[in-house]
Amino acid sequence: MMNKFSRTLFTYIIILVFTDNRGYPQEGSSGKGFPIFNGKDLEGWIIHGTEKWYVEGKELICESGPDKGYGYLATINTYKDFDLSLEFLQEANGNSGIFFRSSIEGTRITGWQAEVAPPGHDTGGIYESYGRGWLIKPEKELDQTLKMNQWNSMRVLVNGDKVTTWLNGVKMIELTDDKIGQASGKIALQIHDGGGIKIRWRNIVVNEFGTEILPRNKNQMTNQSNISTDFPFESKYLEVKGSRMHYIDEGGGTPFLFLHGNPTSSYLWRNIIPHLKPHGRVIAVDLIGMGKSDKPDIDYRFLTHAAYIDEFIEKLELENIVLVIHDWGSALGFHYAFRHQANVKGLAFMEAILRPMKWKEFPFLMKIVFKRFRNEKKGKKMIMEKNFFVEKLMKMAINRKLSQEEMDNYRTPYPDYNSRFPLYVWPNEIPIDGFPEDNHQAISDYSSWLKESEIPKLFLWVKPGAIIPHKQVPKIEGSMKNLTTVFVGSGKHYLQEDQPDAIGQAIANWFKGI
Predict the structure, then answer these.
(1) Residue 369: which domain range?
(2) Cα 406 → chain centroid
(3) What is the DSSP string of 189-242?
(4) 493 is annotated as an active-site residue
(5) Residue 351 catalytic?
(6) pTM score, two decimals?
């Protein structure tokens, strides 16, 4: 039995392993933040309009196109309270702006703009698009702060209903506005209409602030990213190998099949599904023994789960599938795709199991954790008696605090010791140093195939990540054919609970091109 010191030490180890965000801002941090422009490409951004946006020498350049219209480069992520800093150089004309808490349809943008313009045109002021127009302009004597044809630094601080801007270290405006305080949305860079405009941008860094989660009813959102607690889908059941598997099935067309991992369920996908429903048929299944699916007396090993998924797909007659996969759901999806290549249209994966592991690759503290998981006595006590995956790991591996309603949705399938057996099996199924042998072979097979397959793939990643740390992203990008990568924001392992809108939009955009 662990004494008090041992329990405290072990808890500390777990926290270190699953909440290591060194170098990245924490919720409520006043740190410098992280780059939202990587200096290489437009990853994490979406172009709106026909004007030119491209990267040259680690600089982001916007330039008027042949249509000479308005154009925008908007973040995939939404932001509420943040401290944004960047640099810009106006080469030709330079009429632009930095939008915040904005929404865009085509080239129609609603929200607020921190002005970036030639001398005499109120750089640093705040303009409301499709609304009240100018809300505040800098004092005239501050116009000399702008350096035309030179690099300028700009900072935009948005916190609640208050906005402050600085240009080259000089405060330009300070504004308090109730309407701004109620909004959230994208950050977007603008290029004005009229032609002849060229601006360079660099060092675009944002630091998000935490915000209080207020009491709410089931129809209210849990934070500024519109993360709903609701699961507004009709439950369906399909008999597979003599047991019922729970799933939801909405829309029509190309099937998107969502596969979750440990210890989650189809509930994990609730805020991503609406982004894809307009593009096809969305199906999210609860793995056998998990969520609302039955808990038959089986071994719950990886290949057993795979057999259930095979029959589920076959019985629903799913063809030309887009697999949206995470955690052990990724291993199941990759394994299916390797064996049924002609039936897979695309693979969208995140925090995925890409290959077998070796103990020597594990950081020291992580090795301690997983050795304990794989010890039958200690592992069962942690996972089956204490419900560690639901009560501890999920909380540590999500940035925001889940509401009581959300936690109850994850707790309900596992009310007692025996119901948690499937959760205990999963960490014992990870192939490490060649064991278990059958899983090692299965995952090795699909790992090799993924590198050469031309099936379209989408890799969604977060900082700092967990089983795929952000530092591994360049290696993954260079290892697979026909791979698109999209950075969706700050997150750990269960990124669907932190960045659902960014994930859904990224998958929808990628799908249009395949």
Answers:
(1) 236-512
(2) 18
(3) EEE-SSS--EEEEEEEEEEEPP-------TTSBSSTT--B----S--EEEEETT
(4) yes
(5) yes
(6) 0.64
275 is catalytic: no
Beta bridge partners, 111, equal 129
Residue 392 DSSP symbol: I
The answer to whether residues 366 and 473 belong to one domain is yes
393 and 255 part of one domain: yes
Q: What are phi and psi of 461, to 5 degrees?
A: -135, 160
* CATH code of residue 298: 3.40.50.1820
DSSP letters spanning 74-110 = EESS-BSSEEEEEEEEEEES--EEEEEEEEEETTEEE
Query: Which tens digits make up the pLDDT trace of 152-206?
Result: 999 999 999 999 999 999 999 999 999 998 888 899 999 887 778 899 999 999 8
On whether residue 348 sits in a domain, the answer given is: yes
- Of 326, 440, 493, 501, the active-site residue reads 493
Closest C-alpha to 124, from 114, 134, 133 = 114
- Of these residues, 327, 406, 498, 501, which one is catalytic? 327
Q: Using CA atoms, how far apart are residues 183 and 101, in angstroms rounded to an integer? A: 6
Q: Give the Cα separation of 303 and 445 in Å (integer).
A: 14
Q: Which of 351, 406, 429, 498 is catalytic?
A: 351
